[in-house]
Design brief:
By secondary structure, the protein is of the alpha+beta class. It has two domains: 4-89 and 180-266, Arc Repressor Mutant, subunit A (Orthogonal Bundle); 103-166, 2-Layer Sandwich (Alpha-Beta Plaits). Helix content is 56%, strand content 11%. The chain has eleven helices and seven strands. The model has no long low-confidence stretch (mean pLDDT 89).
Length: 270
């Protein structure tokens, strides 16, 4: 079995650090679907990171009070803005696209006074809808995505912006200006390399890979949320988006199997 230290060094190179209780809970529930998780499972999972049971229960209480999670039928599940993040994450993991015919969606901010909070709300909505800021008040993206479960973000844009269909003269150059594709690609390849090593050990049943594997999953989810999900015509030939997602599916399946086995051996939680 691989040693924990090997994982520590690999994750440090990726700048993937230890997670506090709230982040572990959020990440666990983001990957659990609408059924959520029993508190006993969450406590044991957070315990993998050396966090005391009491600290986990305090974090759960605070997240409920903040409207980030809710308790239903003995299980905790996401709520509020965290639920929308789950929808965004699912759309990043399994994107729904349509045939791209060269058109772009452009949103232009209406010329009305807006305070800082309103501006920040729009920026968050545009990021959720995967638009890039061409210049202040002008947001663009190719019209190749089917946006699902993002009604709140769409409503924010509708309230503050006018929408247009446009056809840039040089779509490749516009995409390159809006998103740092080379940086995303480089990070994706680094994640793939480390994730593959951890997945190999998970497939061998290594419990030492559980905590590092969880941290790896959280890092991958953060990265795919930043994927602009562009049409193939606007991407480099070497674009690793599909490779990253496929490697993550292998990693996640192995991680879930080891977790279930570990929980069964420890308790009757599952």
């Amino acid at each position: 079995m691989a040693s924990a230290q090997k994982y520590v060094r690999a994750l440090e190179r990726l700048d993937v650090t230890e997670l506090p209780a709230r982040s572990v809970i959020a990440s666990a529930l983001l990957g659990s679907g609408r059924r959520g998780q029993r508190v006993s499972v969450l406590v044991r999972l957070v315990g993998l990171f050396g966090i005391a049971d009491g600290a986990t229960r305090v974090a759960l209480s605070r997240m409920v009070a903040a409207g980030e999670i809710e308790s239903v039928a003995g299980r905790y599940r996401l709520a509020g803005r965290m639920l929308e993040r789950q929808h965004r994450q699912d759309a990043s993991r399994w994107p729904t696209t349509k045939v791209w015919k060269g058109s772009w969606s452009m949103a232009v901010v209406r010329p009305t006074p807006r305070d800082q909070a309103t501006r920040q709300t729009l920026r968050a909505a545009m990021e959720a809808l995967r638009h890039g800021e061409y210049r202040e008040g002008v947001w663009l993206r190719p019209d190749n995505l089917v946006m699902v479960h993002l009604d709140e973000a769409a409503a924010v844009v509708h309230e503050q912006c006018e929408r247009f269909e446009v056809f840039p003269d040089d779509a490749v150059a516009v995409a390159a200006a809006l998103w740092d594709l080379s940086q995303w690609e480089a990070r994706a390849r680094e994640l793939c390399d480390t994730m593959s090593v951890i997945a190999d050990d998970l497939e061998k049943g290594s419990i030492h890979a559980l905590a590092p594997g969880f941290m790896m999953s959280a890092a991958v989810f953060r990265h795919v949320l930043a994927d602009p999900l562009l049409p193939d015509e606007l991407l480099p030939d070497s674009w690793p988006g599909d490779t990253l997602r496929a490697e993550f599916e292998r990693h996640d399946a192995a991680w879930q199997t080891v977790l279930r086995d570990w929980l069964r051996q420890a308790t009757d939680l599952v």
